[in-house]
Amino acid sequence: xxxxxxxxxxxxxxxxxxxxxxxxxxxxxxxxxxxxxxxxxxxxxxxxxxxxxxxxxxxxxxxxxxxxxxxxxxxxxxxxxxxxxxxxxxxxxxxxxxxxxxxxxxxxxxxxxxxxxxxxxxxxxxxxxxxxxxxxxxxxxxxxxxxxxxxxxxxxxxxxxxxxxxxxxxxxxxxxxxxxxxxxxxxxxxxxxxxxxxxxxxxxxxxxxxxxxxxxxxxxxxxxxxxxxxxxxxxxxxxxxxxxxxxxxxxxxxxxxxxxxxxxxxxxxxxxxxxxxxxx
Length: 280
Fold this sequence. Notes:
four-stranded mixed beta sheet, 10 helices, 46% helix
């Protein structure tokens, strides 16, 4: 996935792997994918960012980075009860009210799936189209074959978790998570059917998913970038700054791509204050 110059995505590396693995991976991407720019999202301060910089220098690749805001996460190491205890009074009251409302309508049934299920994925695509994401370019629907292959491989590797919430047998909401090393989980994709919005399926799905992941022994769930209100509602710790990192092939086209992104990002920084003022 990407634009005129290259590919984009996220990089997940076992902390025990070391910088040599990152260098080998980037070298293989530039050799086989033939992209001039590789844009990585949600990179935090820490060893991975340092390894990326080191790998770029060894490969002779130019690099650039910009802030993407902050990533909210929930500490699951103390169990589900500790998560709920750390929520605000407003969020606790909201949960109680939404649970009662759902129960009065017959209840919602939660399941968590660790393997890729083609039938479930078909339902996920339908809910994505019926959600707010259906008004634009739904990510999963737009690249169905790609995500089917990726999720199938992740499921085979034990790294996939798909939370599903149903009302009267119909899928009301889904949450696709990726489980990484050390019990860290990334909340990758979620949506709910707007036709069932009065049941608050998104909130209740996250509640059920946090309980299931904590019971499994996961240590944290990372909501990645984005300033959606629901992420802050579940957050029990200060958010972490995250960055977009762009690496450019050591070639003429790579240098063109580096210049293009630097100008593009600089223009966005200059226009950001104007956009904020217009909204105010």
